[in-house]
What we know:
With 293 residues, this protein is an alpha/beta fold. Helices cover 43% and strands 16% of the residues. The two termini are 26 Å apart.
Amino acid sequence: MTADQPAPPPPIRSLLFVPANRADRMHKALATEADGVVFDLESAIPRGAAEEARANVRHALDSHTPEQPAVFVRVCAVGTDDFTPDVEACRHRSLTALMLPQVAEPAEVATASSALDGTDAWLMPLVETASAVRQAYELATASDRVAYMGGATGRHGDLGRSVGFQWTPEGTETLYLRQKVLIDVRAAGVANPLSGLWGTVDDLDGLARFATQTRQLGYEGMMAIHPSHLAIINTTFSPTPAEIDGWHRLIAAAEEAEAQGIGAFRYEGRLIDHAHVLTARQSLTRATHLGLT
Length: 293
């Protein structure tokens, strides 16, 4: 963390994409249950609408309130003619993170980080190329602003074209990609790994299965393309009341054992040691940051 970034990044379970040339949809997105919204200046808008979209982003940032979702902005790729004007449009105190598409080299992350000098904004490099998968750790450590990052999964999207995989609902073709990137970003200390999205709007059962698998891998959240996906994503990436209660009870039992001079102990049929207590405390901290305790 740099001197420009005094506060930790907010936890994100669900990140909803909205085309930035649609001011009406942007306004509606800020009233949803998404933890964060992405105003998209890159692939979701016609290029002739770029100036209008940047103005919409600026207006949304000017009027943003703390109780609304965190605001991410996906800008055009580093090195394109649109990158600098896109960044200038969203350099704002209300910007949570800049989302970087088509990242291939760590130098691009460093360039984007420098473009944010003087702001508190974080970075989210998107894993959309084979090169990004290969260099995920290097991308994640290219700037201490990188707080969100993860494996892309889109059907017939950029990564599919780059790698050549054939998409299936089961996600086996992207399983290694998601795991590899997750290990890299976790090793780099990225605070909030976020996986790619579920691209079929009406298949909520498929979304639930995919989100569950993604959470089991170790991701903290995922991207979304439609508001109907948010409830499932938020529920999947949130601990249940029973889990929260269980962590409290485990910690209390550990503290009691410690007071008696006991290290490892048997608890509800399991052998508990210091590692389990650390995990419980970490899980409770996340639940607290999500406002669930």
